[in-house]
Amino acid sequence: MRTIHCIAACLLAMTPLFGQAQERIEKMKDFIMRQDGVATTNETEKDPKTLDLRSSRETYGFTVKRNSLIVQNAIIAFDQDAAKAYSVFKGDGESLATTYDVGGINIGKGYDHFVLECFADKNNSNRRYAYALEWNEAKRGKITGKLTKVYGQRPGSVTVTNVTTSLPSMSDYQSVGKAVKNHIVTDGTLSNEQIDSIINSVIRRLNKKGYKDIASMLQQEWQTAEQSEKNDASAVQTIVYDKEKNFMKRYRNGQVLIIDGAGNIVFTGLKGKLVMDAAGNIVATNYSGKTVVISND
Length: 297
Description:
The chain is of the alpha+beta class. The protein has helices at 6-14, 23-33, 70-81, 160-164, 174-178, 192-208, 212-231; strands at residues 39-46, 53-65, 87-92, 100-102, 105-107, 113-121, 124-135, 142-153, 236-241, 247-251, 256-259, 265-268, 273-276, 282-285, 291-294. The chain has two domains: 6-153, TBP-like; 160-294, Glycosyl hydrolase fold (Single Sheet).
């Protein structure tokens, strides 16, 4: 690991910087990524038509000597930019029982300390930059840590309305459903294993976010649907799978599962409803009317 000199690191943290709100953290990120032995991951997703950036994830894992100033000066950078962040989260020791899922990365898991700060994208109010610093207490003379940067959907900008707009509904299939009395299968169908994998991935995300009641409700609903089909083939009233890969399965007890060709999902159960759009944003409602919205950030 390259030696980090005190004077250079302190100048980095103290020099006034202008531009984006998180510029001190950006400078520290650039500094860390240039060090020897840093484990780096970098993933980006762009709009296939416009090539505009949809999301990105960067992580920089490092190990430094106990007397290194890299963590100390990274903390200073986060502290100095914190006033411009719209959300700041910190955790130490026992408080790390709660971790934060940021763009599919668990912040706070496996480390003794963390600080997480979120900044609005000034060019797009529905997007945000999230930065996290995680580190452990020194062990055997070494400190391990990680700096993470995630760009993506700003939580809270995803609402029930914009997730459910243009999603498939039963009315889209009424003309097909009325034309037959039993099953319709055209141009193939989704396997039960594929459907099971999709529903279970949503259940895991709900649990991960702490919505265990709705996750349990959804799991029970789906198990009811699966069990009814296993016990009695006639429990499934209609199956549709067309050339556009729109899939609908309607159960005799009233449950309905729709997965359209774009990847949007609507599952209407006996006690609740699940919607997940193609971007991975979730709207789930239980029998009492409680609704949660989870963005794929």
